[in-house]
Structure formats: C-alpha cells, structure tokens
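Kindly review this record before class:
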Amino acid sequence: MAITQTPGITYNEINTTPNANGVGAEIPIFIGISGNSTPYIGIQKFKKYEDACVEPTATTPGLGTSLTNNPLLETVQKFFNEAKKIQADDIGIPYIYAIDLGNITLRSGEQATNASESTITAWTNAMKLAKTVQEVTMEAYVGFKSTDTPADYLSLMVSADEKIKEYVSMCQPRIGYFTVKGATDNVLISLTNDSANQHSRICLIEPNKFGEILARIATTPYYEEPGYYAFRSINPGEFTERSKEEELALQNAGIIFGRDEKVGNISYPKICLGVSTAFAADEDARPKDALLHARRNVDRLIRDTYVTIYPQLKRNETEGYLSYAQADIDTLISNKIDSGYMKEGTYLQVAESDIDPYDLKINGEVLPINATYTIGVNIYLGDI
C-alpha cells in the first residue's frame, strides 16, 4: 500500500464553510504592483480569487482581470490555489487583504542607485496602512524584479523590518515576505551577505513559487515547521532540481525554497526549511529566532499573552488582581507546554515596575518546541 502523506496526527475541525479558518492559520496582506492605472485606493479584502479578478476603479475593489504584467494578481491567484482545502481537516484561509500600488516602478540600472522619493513614499505609506488591520500576521511584498537595482528593494526590506518592529512593541507581531522575480539563486544568496540585510522578521523566497510558498506557510500551524507538510497544488517535478550543495548554499543564505523530497519511489513537494534572512548570519551570531517556526510560535505567544493580560489594563493594581493576572499567564504557558508547543522552562513573570508605579512588566524566557531536522542512521552489519 502506498504511503501518501508523512507520518503525523491530524486535527479535524468541523465547519460549515469550505474556506473556514483553521487552528494556526495566518491572515496575509499583499502589498504590491499590479500595473493598474487606476487602482482601488485603500485596503481591499477578498474571500476568493474570483473576487480579486475584477477591473478596479479608485472606489471599486479589484486587482485586475489579466495576469499579464500583474504580479500582484498573479501572486494572489497562486496563493488561493494552494490554500484551497482538499480534505476536511485541512487548514483554510477565510480571506486575504491587499493594497494595490498600481503601476509604480522602481528605477533601475544607471538611472538611480535608490528608489525615487515618490516610489519610497508609496511603499512606506502602504506599510503603515497595512498595520491598521490588526489580525494580519503576514505582509507579502510583490513586484520586485531582477532588472531593478538591488539597493532599491533592499532598502524597502529594511524599512519593512523597522516598521514591523515598531508594532511588535505594541503586541502586534508579524513577518514580512519578499521575492525578486527572475532572480537566480546566486543573486538571492548575494542579497543576504550583508548583516544589514539579515532580519528575523523578513523572509526572502524563491520567485517561481512565491504565492504557493506563502500559502503553504499561512496554512501551516504556527507551532510546526513549514516544510513538514507537502504542497496541495504543486506536483513532483515542478521545483528546480538542485544539488545538495546548491540547496545548502540557499538554506545557509536564509532563502526559502521548495524541493522534491524523495522517499523510495514517492516524491513529496515541500519547503526545504523555513528560515528568515537572519539565518544567513554566521553560526555563532545566528539569532535564536532565525528559524521561521520558532519565530511564528513565539509571536503567537505574544498575541495570546496580550489577550490574557489585557483585562488588567486600567484595573486597580491590588495585590489580588496582580495574582489573578499571573495565574492567567501561568495557565496560558501551562496549556502551551501540555499541547507540545512550548518546552518546559518557559515562563513569564508579571511584576510591578520599580521605576513607574503605573507600569507592569512581563519578563521571562520562552522556549519554543524544536523540530527534527536531521536523523542519523548508524547500522552495524554483523557476520552472515
């Protein structure tokens, strides 16, 4: 009998809608270039691809009807195709958000070493606007291409990281995802050589399957390695065939890419390894959250802690109420450990600030569960 999936226990949430959100799913916002001359102004929300495949006006939502020279619509199409539920227990995406930047371009070649001021303003304004949707946890930036000057989109990656960090401090953590259409592996690797371009909250993905990889991450539970599950819409043989050395070079450069994992005569199209660009740092300087599943897991704890501790905000700061807040946090951590999402030793301590009498501080240590990345097999063959 053929094995058609990797070993594991699945969780089945009964629902009445085929696109219902599942445990651990993420809500993305797509920000990028569509080529539309009159894009819709503001944030758009789509439940399915057909809703997005509409000619927009300044007041009518839509991302266009032609995939030609429309990287935003193309990415959204591939995302929805991969996110489509196949089995009842698959995690689904209820909807996505999008910000259409129309037909702006990055100046490239000898015309400029940096993006024009108007282009920078359009992207950075979109970054700010995206933060107004609090449920979003993924920001996907679409429209950069290999003919653009790398300094242009690298500066925008830095800007995206800085803006994301501002909102992390307000308990709204999220991760930014980028690609460069037409970029070779060597070009992608070169983009993360500089430590200034290595960020735990910025991921760089191979261009050919950008939308599908985004959906695979979004529909993977936050406590799982994104490379654990096979793709729903990608068949074996569709990913670029690379040598082990080429794969290792991409992985160590902090690039997310797909490959066929062969088990006997069966191939499973999967993400090789969920990494951020921070994974490109030297091993001794690599941050603990360079792996995507660790970063997402801790981010979920940040959001859950915010929800748990929120009732204490503006409450009388009595000893009893502080103990209630601590008990709620302890229960949250205990449940995470019992569920296998965090390891023993994870703790968060609620305490009054010794500087500001109106301030509470939460300190502690978070130990997200590991994943198995290598399995060594040593076999001794005895005398026959």
About this structure: The first strand starts at residue 27 and ends at 32. Residues 126 and 205 are 21 Å apart (CA to CA). The mean pLDDT is 88.
